[in-house]
Amino acid sequence: MDGDRLKVLYLTPEAVPFAKTGGLADVAGALPEALHQMGIDVRLILPCYRAVLEKQHDLERFDSSFWLQLGDAFLETRVLGSRTPQGVPVYFIEREDLFDRPNLYGNNQGDYYDNCERFTFFAHAALQGIQTLSFRPDIIHCHDWQTGLVPALLQGPYRAEDFFSRTRTVFTIHNIGYQGLFPPAKLRITGLPLNRFYHPEGLEYWGNLSLLKSGIVYADALTTVSPTYAKEVQTAEYGRGMEGILRRRRDALHGILNGVDYRIWDPSIDVHLPAHYDITDRSGKAVCKAALLEETGLDRGLIDKPLLAMISRLDNQKGLDLLLAILDQLLVRDTGLIILGSGDPHIQAALEQAVGRFPGRMALRTGFDDPLAHRIMAGADIFLIPSRYEPCGLTQMYALKYGTLPVVRATGGLQDTIASFERVTGRGNGFTFSAYAPDAFFDAILQAISLYGERDHWTGLQSNGMAADFSWARSAEAYLRLYADLLGKPEAG
Ligand code: ADP
Ligand code: GLC
């Protein structure tokens, strides 16, 4: 460590408020701010997407542009700068032809064909850009496959560089389902020597190159975003073929639960809501519900009936097949359902058909709409997360704070955060089910719907959830301990 302060560089493909497709952005926005408040010199580095250029009009332009090699090409780039709302420095790697695009990773025809080039370029540019800025990190903390190349690069081409001689790497797996798989011919552009890195103990994965595996194999420490998922990924059921290597690295693997940024997700201060409320006065929640029914065109009569909601990427991971299997049984009852989602066009089409069968009962909003996500969180009564797998899941924790009771499949972080209601003791904060089966999901929903009619129990369960504290401070301390262990220091900070 130069001086007293621990220096940590976050390499991430997304972070709130700059660019977001899912929960990783929430984490990469909030965790560095929590560390910053603990006195750590933490900085972020992201690609300079179009979303960044459109939102950040105050970008600082550092003078130093530099060139780097990508395969046979030599490409010029430079670093732009900004800060998070709490003042954490953020750097953006600018390269118009690679990052100035409508989306982060792809469009409705699929992933961008050159994602390997894009994120290989990002990895090299981050490692070189940080040198031009003279920020010498003690820890480089990488997130998901888009940054997985970095730990390998630091053990390969950058190993000899004095600048990184004391740097240790942490790689966080937010989702093992996204593995950054590319044909082996792409290895050439990574700058890694083939013999040393491309083999089953390296970043070869069943005949492909996996940038996720690169992070898993070469980082000094691995984390994933809940204790249960850390165990699950070591099994054949959840490991997606990475379970063997993860079992071999289990001593380096830690499960640290994500937190909630209550400056953004709290119904007493949420800027997107028509009325505010908290645990002591929940009257504003009914105002939010009425406004949501109005906004989505649902029957006004649903105001005193259970209103169910889901906010999710429309992806195989999220259990939408379970929802589609029970939709008709559910909506013949006195209930309403609102879904906000974007992703798989087939899932979207099936949901659209269901809306046609239940007008006034079911509403679907597609696309990515953050303010609407907040209004749904506040206006709904019951929040559904029937995930096939869920590394952590953030929306169940948001739902708790908004007095919206979660019905979740007990897997990954959902299992670590949601406990079933116990009638005798009044304990619990939601409803869980285990088998990945429509009946099991439907039974859990029925429990929630029937409890809705028992106001004492309902408000008691709401209180349990609203009082819970999942703020980032505890998780940030766990990360800090990990960084300190890696650096061989009794205490970092
Ligand atoms: P994942 O990262 O797997 O998508 P998480 O529960 O960790 O799941 O995080 C999802 C985040 O993305 C939450 O902040 C949620 O509100 C948000 N989100 C998901 N889909 C949408 C959408 N269509 N519009 C707005 N926000 C969304
Ligand atoms: C991933 C996971 C989700 C997790 C998020 C943030 O996208 O699917 O469960 O909450 O990352 O870590």
Could you please describe the fold and organization of this structure?
By secondary structure, this protein is α/β, with parallel strands linked by helices. The chain folds into two domains: 7-259 and 473-487, 3-Layer(aba) Sandwich (Rossmann fold), CATH 3.40.50.2000; 283-469, Glycogen Phosphorylase B (Rossmann fold, 3-Layer(aba) Sandwich), CATH 3.40.50. It is 37% helix and 21% strand. The chain has 19 helices and 20 strands. The strands form four sheets. The chain has a nine-stranded mixed β-sheet, sandwiched between helices. A six-stranded parallel β-sheet has the order 17-16-15-18-19-20, sandwiched between helices. Helix 15 links the parallel strand 18 and strand 19 (405-409). Helix 5 (149-155) crosses helix 8. It is globular, with a radius of gyration of 23 Å. Bound molecules: adenosine-5'-diphosphate and alpha-D-glucopyranose. Residues 22-24, 27, 174-175, 225, 258, 390-394, 413 line the site of alpha-D-glucopyranose (GLC). Adenosine-5'-diphosphate (ADP) binds at residues 22-24, 26, 311-313, 340-342, 368-370, 373, 392-395.
